[in-house]
């Protein structure tokens, strides 16, 4: 597996959108001049240790009530009042955190490169339990209050008792021969644990027993080389009501019925970042740096903004009437949901911004690669 691990890092870089047979890689597009229609105002800013680190991590913060939780690559975990930025507690686990942060039912949950899952008390930061899995955890654990579900880099799913950390079940999948470095986090409901796999499939398990309920292939590997056949689901799954949204690398973006896995609609796309949904539309950050708005009723493109080509975009997020995305230089861009034109821009972190912006009400939280966590609002 050593050659595969080395390839994972290379693929994370290749995922900016250049093809495997390009003769010369084009540079990231220069930022276009825009007419600012709205202003992103900073409410507060905090430094979260070393941030995302030098490897390709996506340590997205999580909000529960009035508190935002964030972790850095070396195990610093912080609970912060999301309105004024005051630190409520800080814990240094001294662990190589790579899957963060999951939150819910009084727990803050993290995964590590060493295959550990750690649950902290959300009120105090005190460690509640620690369990082991059989691979790297590159995405946040998820919980429904009864069980905590974790997906490893090798596509194995584990369920632990939320109170004790005792293993309830394990379900193994066969991963693709070659994958991008990353894993989408599972979605957990009262009945199902749903995960996107490196094979381009989405699988739903009975959350209590770990038994398959349905399986749906979203992308079919194509091409002669293993690189051409990569169809990872790395951007995570988005659940809205009873609809599950998913995007694959070199495959499709699709909407699935949560209970049955039935495809509601699908469209060709290549994304390693993920999707957002709002106002009857779906928004996706494509691997080539374009941002696309898709009409759910027809599965056709409403608009495409390709001005951010090769700028290694984060997953999009809906913020008020706009779509927000981050880029490799640390900018947050606001696009109109109506036609995709730029309406605003601000710089958050000079080391870049690859983690999905997090939106709660009138606030957006952006966590830069260098560790800067910033609260933004529209003025």
From TrEMBL:
Record keyword Lipoprotein present: yes
SMART domains on file: PQQ (SM00564)
Subcellular location: Cell outer membrane
Primary localization class, coarse: membrane
Keyword Lipoprotein: yes
Known partners and oligomeric status: Part of the Bam complex.
Job of this protein: Part of the outer membrane protein assembly complex, which is involved in assembly and insertion of beta-barrel proteins into the outer membrane.
Name the record gives this protein: Outer membrane protein assembly factor BamB
């Amino acid at each position: 597996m050593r050659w595969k691990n080395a390839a994972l890092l290379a693929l994370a870089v290749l995922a900016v959108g250049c093809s495997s047979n390009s003769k010369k890689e084009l540079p990231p597009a220069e930022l276009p001049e825009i007419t600012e229609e709205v202003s992103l105002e900073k409410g507060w800013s905090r430094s979260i240790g070393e941030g995302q680190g030098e490897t390709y991590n996506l340590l997205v913060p999580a909000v529960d009530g009035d508190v935002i939780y964030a972790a850095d690559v070396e195990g610093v975990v912080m609970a912060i009042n999301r309105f004024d930025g005051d630190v409520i507690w800080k814990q240094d686990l001294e662990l190589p955190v790579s899957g963060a942060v999951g939150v819910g039912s009084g727990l803050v949950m993290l995964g590590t490169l060493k295959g550990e899952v750690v649950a902290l008390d959300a009120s105090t930061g005190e460690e509640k339990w620690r369990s082991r899995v059989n691979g790297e955890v590159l995405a946040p654990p998820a919980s429904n209050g009864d069980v905590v579900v974790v997906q490893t880099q090798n596509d194995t799913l584990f369920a632990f008792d939320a109170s004790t950390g005792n293993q309830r079940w394990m379900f193994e999948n066969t991963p693709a021969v070659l994958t991008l470095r990353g894993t989408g986090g599972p979605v957990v409901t009262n009945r199902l644990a749903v995960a996107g796999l490196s094979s381009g499939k989405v699988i739903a398990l009975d959350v209590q027993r770990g038994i398959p309920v349905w399986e749906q292939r979203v992308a079919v590997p194509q091409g002669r080389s293993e690189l051409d056949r990569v169809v990872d689901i790395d951007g995570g799954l988005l659940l809205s009501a009873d609809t599950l949204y998913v995007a694959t690398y070199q495959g499709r973006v699709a909407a699935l019925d949560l209970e049955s896995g039935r495809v509601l609609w699908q469209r060709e796309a290549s994304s390693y970042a993920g999707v957002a949904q709002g106002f009857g539309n779906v928004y996706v950050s494509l691997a080539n740096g374009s941002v696309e708005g898709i009409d759910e009723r027809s599965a056709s493109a409403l608009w495409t903004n390709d001005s951010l080509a090769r700028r290694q975009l984060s997953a999009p997020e809906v913020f008020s009437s706009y779509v927000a995305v981050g880029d490799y230089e640390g900018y947050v861009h606001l696009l109109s949901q109506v036609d995709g034109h730029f309406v605003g821009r601000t710089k958050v972190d000079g080391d870049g911004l690859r983690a999905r912006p997090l939106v709660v009400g009138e606030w957006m939280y952006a966590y830069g690669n260098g560790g800067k966590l910033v609260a933004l609002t529209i003025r």
